[in-house]
Amino acid sequence: MLGYAPHMNLNRLAALPVAALALTLVGAVPASASPATPKPLPCTASMSNSRPADYTTTDVLVRTAGLAKVITVAHYKTTSHKKTAKAGTNGRVAVPYYISGATPGYNVKVTVNVSKSGQSGSCSTSFTPHR
């Protein structure tokens, strides 16, 4: 055999190219193989009137991405009211809540969830009814 060195093990030499190839492939795998988490959809919410009187209407004013789906839930003392809307092309929508005989002085939290094209976001606001 040409180039044979009697002190070298031929089986070890044959395995070297396979080991080198394996190391090259392992090095090519990205550190994070999981897909990137989508960036949250922007969401801001406020009330047109944060101290509405009973038997009036106040709007949840939402700003998000254009044409996003908007879900609001007003959490009253004894019940919750859910409403669904769609933001305009400018990303804004006003969701009206009629305040009938809500508990005066009770802070009603309104949670807002927005979604579009697999992205989602959330925000909240609140109002306190009075007589």
Short description:
With 131 residues, this protein is mostly beta strands. Helices cover 15% and strands 40% of the residues.
Task: Furnish the topology, listing elements before pairings.
Layout: H1 10-28, E1 44-47, E2 56-63, E3 69-75, E4 80-86, E5 92-99, E6 108-116, E7 119-127
Task: Walk me through this protein's architecture.
- The model is unreliable at 21-25 (pLDDT under 50).
- The strands form two sheets. A four-stranded antiparallel beta sheet has the order 4-3-6-7, with no helix packed on it. The protein has a three-stranded antiparallel beta sheet with strand order 1-2-5, with no helix packed on it.
- With 131 residues, the chain is mainly β.
- The protein has a domain at 44-127: Immunoglobulins (Immunoglobulin-like, Sandwich), CATH 2.60.40.10.
- The protein contains one helix and seven strands; from the N terminus they run H-E-E-E-E-E-E-E.
- Strand 3 and strand 4 (80-86) form a beta hairpin.
- It is elongated and about 50 Å long.
The main pleated sheet reads as: 4 strands, antiparallel
Describe the strand arrangement of the main beta sheet, using strand numbers: 4-3-6-7
Shape: elongated
CATH topology of one domain: Immunoglobulin-like
How many β-strands, per DSSP?
A: 7
Kindly, what is the distance between the CA atoms of the first and last residues, rounded to a whole number of angstroms? Answer: 103 Å
- Mean pLDDT equals 85
Helical amount among residues, as a percent range? 10-25%
Order of helices and strands: HEEEEEEE
Proper CATH architecture of one domain = Sandwich
- Structural class, please? mainly beta
CA radius of gyration is: 30 Å
